[in-house]
Design goal:
This protein is of the alpha/beta class. The chain has helices at residues 3-24, 48-52, 68-80, 94-101, 124-127, 152-159, 165-174, 210-219, 233-236, 238-250, and strands spanning 30-34, 57-61, 86-91, 107-113, 140-142, 148-150, 197-202, 223-227. The protein contains 10 helices and 8 strands. Strand 3, helix 4 (94-101) and strand 4 form a beta-alpha-beta unit. Helices cover 38% and strands 16% of the residues. The strands form 2 sheets. Strands 2-1-3-4-7-8 form a 6-stranded parallel sheet, sandwiched between helices.
């Protein structure tokens, strides 16, 4: 065999060795799911298999709910661990978390599910200033450390009123109690200023007034989907929620 044939053969071997990496293409997109207050990662249990069935990698964050900084750190660790682009999804309080944690080059789109999206320098409690207390506030039960839970009755009436009784009981039993002080913490960064955003307004929400959700969605320039659900559309209408997340993922090239 001539030297030129050897060189050509060697080049072919090297190209074949490199082929799997290029054939595999870019790393899979990952959906990172961030739960809200009075919840945990299991609140996404119905949505996760729908996303995975469409070829997406999915990771649910377990927020400590002890401070905004702690929740943002927990979310950033998950984002940083992903090999490819991230679609960041937040429910309720999780909207505050993704707004701040989403200031990350890996995050390509944001999805707010009946979630808070305050302006920079504004807290969740600031959003309600001058307004009468919401009905669910009387259902809060505080412990000696300043962490709060929703009573079982509060979950049934205000949080998940469109779910079967067994699921409502499970939510009440597994809820993650937040430290009450997190609702006074102000947003210091806003990923929605530079990232495409999608927003699900829950028109029967008993925790965040639907009109407030619509106003926040408009303020951040989000693409809006309205669902006739309680505060937990990912549990009462998981397929519709998954469709919005998939649309966000499809927008990422």
């Amino acid at each position: 065999m001539s030297l030129s044939h050897l060189l050509l053969s060697g080049t072919a071997v090297l190209m074949a060795m490199a082929a799997p990496a290029s054939a595999a293409g870019a790393p899979k997109k990952t959906v990172v799911l961030v739960h809200g207050a009075f919840a945990d990662g299991s609140s996404w249990s119905k949505v996760i298999p729908l996303l995975e069935a469409r070829g997406l990698n999915v990771v649910a964050v377990q927020n400590p709910l002890s401070s905004l900084a702690a929740d943002v750190d927990a979310t950033r660790r998950v984002i940083d661990a992903q090999p490819g682009p991230v679609i960041l999804v937040g429910h309720s309080w999780g909207g505050v978390v993704i707004s701040q944690a989403g200031v990350n080059d890996k995050v390509k789109a944001l999805v707010y599910v009946a979630a808070f999206a305050p302006p920079k320098g504004v807290s969740v409690n600031d959003l309600g200033k001058g307004q009468p207390p919401l009905p669910w506030a009387s259902a809060l039960e505080a412990d000696s450390g300043g962490y709060v839970r929703l009573s079982a009755e509060g979950v049934a009436k205000h949080f998940a009123q469109d779910l079967p009784p067994q699921e409502i009981s499970l939510i009440a039993a597994t809820q993650g109690p937040p430290f009450a002080g997190i609702f006074d913490e102000k947003l210091t960064a806003a990923a929605y200023e530079t990232k495409p955003s999608f927003y699900i307004v829950a028109s029967h929400d008993g925790m965040i007034p639907p009109a407030a959700e619509a106003a926040m969605a408009k303020a951040i320039g989000a693409e809006v989907t309205e669902l006739a659900t309680s505060h937990v559309p990912m549990l009462s209408k998981p397929r519709e929620v998954a469709d919005v997340i998939l649309a966000a993922a499809d927008s990422v090239k």
